[in-house]
TrEMBL record, chains A, B:
Listed InterPro entries: N-FG_amidohydro (IPR007709), UCP029730 (IPR011227)
Record organism: Rhizobium rosettiformans
Keyword annotations from UniProtKB, A to Z: Hydrolase
Gene3D superfamilies in UniProt: Zn-dependent exopeptidases (3.40.630.40)
Gene Ontology molecular function terms on file: hydrolase activity
Protein name according to UniProt: Putative N-formylglutamate amidohydrolase
């Protein structure tokens, strides 16, 4: 009775959203940090309105990019409808970062000393259904005789702990770098953005959980994309970045697949 | 596609069993370590037949006691149908003991360096459904206007790391000791067994996870019972211990409820 029902109530709706379900390319776009929304029962976690709308709550612009890529690449899109402050779906339940007590400069009072029942409820309500949905899509695609591809979409803040970041687009990978290599090779040939490998984060920061969960065990082509969020603050920016990434991904997939 | 389906296949059946579902007392008996059975897909985890049938795989006798108590106390019983070697349902996913690499003197090769996908699959297949079922029963009982009570049943080995244990029955509790206190008080008045508080384990060993998950947040009366497994090697032993415990619990519940 201390269950997921305590986290999500009827008015919150489902934890996971699936879009462009009829996409036929085999690409599964994943957006773990699509939303800054908190479930009604969560209150404000003791955070200010500024913090609740900041990059600690979500990846601003990531869902907009993922939606354009979903259309451009004809791939399905799975995104989490609630903030990573409640559960960061790019972290396993055993990670302290799954329900962080601190994020960058912000303490998160509502995540301090979480009781086992609360950790369980969040895991059951947000993490398990999210990755079940990703997994189900990958299964379905493979079952239909196509090659599933995992592409996760993130954004990062231009200033972190007070330090500006020069990189504009990060192409991240874990132990399987095939798709990332092909994208980086094309990006190195020239283009409008500063593109770097495993930047501003890399697998050593624990950010490749979704890739490790879904792609690596099955040898699926995969990549994690990080876009600096000041580039996608308006539709024109989203459109430009998405068009660039769509070309990069589709070109790379032709060489890798 | 790396999902729970990879852990449990159709021939394995469900992870969780519910017995005496019409029990009306409000008591929910929980047996996390009821079974030594491994899912077919798990193989032998690299363990010998001896290890696979030993106390590291299950709590021998615990399910037999729990079934008698379920009948005697008219309570429902929830038990896990698979070995704790695959997932120890009395541990949260963030605990290294949930999928242990070592248990007492045994290394468990099949649990070494588990990939995130495997940890996820086990958590989703075994832990979440188990505690969902316990939670659903507690909810149902409360919804029917009765007071739910959580009683978890375990057994322990008479010799651990080569050292004999004198205690015969342990009455364990976490921060809410009401039911345990009442049982210990009655036990201290005399009886056939050596009964001790928080022995041979206690909350500091992380063994009260189920109590902390389900009972403490709601203030439900609760207790964890540990029986030395040499006492329940035959039906007569099970019968004697179960009859003793049924009296102890029902008497204590009258004073606590």
């Amino acid at each position: 009775m201390l269950l997921r029902s305590g986290i999500l109530t009827a008015s919150d709706g489902e934890a996971v959203a699936l879009e462009n379900a009829t996409g036929t390319s085999g690409v599964v776009l994943v957006c773990e940090h699509a939303s800054a929304v908190l479930p009604a029962a969560a209150g404000d976690l003791g955070l200010s309105a500024d913090a609740l709308s900041s990059h600690i709550a979500w990846d601003p612009g990531a869902l907009a990019i993922a939606r354009r890529l979903s259309t451009a690449l004809d791939g399905v899109l799975v995104h989490q409808r609630f903030s990573r402050l409640i559960y960061d779906c790019n972290r396993p339940p055993e990670s302290p970062a799954a329900m962080p007590e601190k994020s960058e400069i912000y303490e998160i009072p509502g995540n301090r000393d979480l009781a086992p029942a609360e950790r369980y409820a969040r895991t059951a309500a947000l993490y398990i259904p999210f990755h079940d949905r990703v997994s189900a899509e990958l299964s379905r695609i493979a079952g239909e005789g196509r090659k599933p591809v995992v592409v996760t979409i993130h954004t990062f803040t231009p200033v972190y702990f007070g330090k500006p970041r020069e990189v504009e687009i990060g192409i991240l990978h874990d132990t399987d770098s095939r798709l990332a290599d092909a994208m980086l090779e094309a990006a190195a040939a020239g283009g409008p953005y500063r593109v770097e490998r495993n930047s501003p984060y890399g697998p050593e920061d624990g950010v490749t959980h979704t890739l490790r969960l879904h792609a690596l065990p099955l040898g699926l082509a995969n990549v994690m994309i990080e876009v600096r969020n000041d580039l996608v603050r308006d539709d024109a920016g989203v459109e430009a970045v998405s068009a660039y990434l769509a070309d990069l991904i589709s070109g790379a997939l032709e060489r890798v697949a």
